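#onboarding

Welcome to the new folks! Below is a worked example of what a typical request in this channel looks like: someone posts a single protein sequence, and someone else replies with the predicted structure as tokens. Don't worry about understanding the tokens yet, we'll cover that in week two.

Example request:
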Amino acid sequence: MSKFKLPKFSFALVAVILTVGTILRLFKINRALGGHDENAMLLYFGYAPLEYITTTYFDANNHVFHTILVHLMTFWFGEDNAVAIRFPTLLFGVAGLGVIYVLALKLFQSQFVAILSLWIAAIHPVHIHYSQTARGYSLIMFFSALMIYAAIKILESENFLKWSGVFIVCGVLSVYTLPTNVYFLAGLAGWIVYIALSTKVAGEFNPDPKYPRRVLILIASLGGAIGMLSLLVYFPMLGQLAKTAQNHPLLTWDAGTAQILSIVPSTISEILKGPLIWFFPFMIIGLVWGGPSRNCYKMLPIFIFFLPFLITITTGVAGYPRNYLYNFPIWIVFLASGLVCTGNLIEKIWNSPRFKNVGVASLTLVLTVGMLLYNFNHYYPSLKIADGNLYRNNIQKFSKPNDLILVADSRNFLYSRTIYKKNFLNIIQSNRLTGVHLVLPEGLILNDYKIFTGKRMDPMLKNVFRQNLLNFQDVSGEKSMVALAGSEAISIFPVDFESNSNWQTVRGQGKAGSNKNHWVTGESSLMLNAGSEEDFVVRSTIEKKITVSNPSLVVLAWTQTSPEKGTLVYNPVLAAEGIINEKVSGMQVLTGMVNDGMHIQIQGQSKNTAPYYWLANASLGKLPPGEYSFYILLNAKAGKTVFYDSLCLFIIEMVGQ
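Example response:
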């Protein structure tokens, strides 16, 4: 490829482009959290304890290495700090731009192609998006580019130990971020094997006849190291990982359908986002006529792009188009080379370097204007989301520290979660409830609020309240909060009820007793140790009778855990015997989990051993007027040990009755 002349201050030009790229990625990075799967990642994994992150994989949103970095950010800077939570992706995104530059320089030995590659990546909407969104995709683009660069350095036998180390570390972290990146490793390995099996191609690196054999041994050794280390880091969750790959509806596709084939154009559309799709022919020109410094480099994007899809068709396990963004760096480089190659063709046709420069400059200008217009007219406006800090502050403003906050829509869990968690701790530590509030999104009325009651989603509050007597407060972003109960609640259970009560066996065999080694509040917890043959069910009764004069809500709060990971811990079942409408009756009090999916974990206290993390739960029900005595049922799965603590039961009068 003929070289375009660049000014001597090309280093300064690189710095300017990196600065522009950084600014574009910082713009709107402080928007509210929650969009583009951030909500699921943070609630399922990002806010969880480190041990949980590294041992749990029930959903593909756990990009483990990235999630670990997010966890550290939340630990240091808080759960609602959007800039801190997105900082790892920003860091790898900006660093990835630098790697794309040096990779292009290595492949084409052309400053112009390298700088053009850097510029395209710097203003590219997809790269910008994943550099300012808390997901792991900027990491896989960084690792894939650096692995390609390291592979070339190794093949050139340049500083073998250093670049082998880089190759292995990037390979492991790449897979630890996104398991589907094994497809990238397979594509890169296929390219290296292709070099080793062809004497002519291998000769581009080293004419020694023994070189191909050394390359095969090399790729086997490096691949083995990456494989073993990847298995090691994934070992605690290998079974869960396999199950997720089998059952995830968008990760597993039938190899006999056309869905897998559709991933190829979808991936291309992801790389060539928006108006960039019109530049697809230049990408092909770069691949065919781009003139890299070694001919074998032309096969690099072919192997990395197509070999993974052949494996996908064979296995039937695929991913989202964004899972294949490891293709991004190499194809952007070949797009840049295609633009430069087009300039060379113009020069040959018109026999004038001036036309070459004008042609490439014109194409680059059209590309730049098109992408910047797309960024500011489509991409950035699409990020519009309500102010999360204002939402959180308004919830705090219109509630008290011991109020229970219910959130109807899981998309609004972020920012309300910190208030809910703090209030929940206040409630169980003081055994005191002062109100119940519900946050509703616009368009959802109180009658439509549903909670899971064990078998179905139940409209628990349907036709319970007179809407005209309720006070709805605007909490920003088309969300309102309404007080369902605002008076001091009656607390039914005494402090340490679970560990001080007399638990009677209802079914099965086992042991129920106080445990002073692990607890959340008070001085002990309840441990249920079930026999191996059947579930162990116990019951405890509150002897005193409670008079309910007006329609009321019943709130049950508790924490639960198990020393054995993955053990199913059943929710408590509340039942009552009472006089209702002058008739004596017994009944199960229908309650449903509130804020299901908010996934609050609390670090407990312990003696002499590492503390457990306890899942914090609350359920809601309703009671008609009457006189009641309550009892509660707990269940431990056969052969398992479970703990319950901080059991609190409240009856609080509904407003507007």
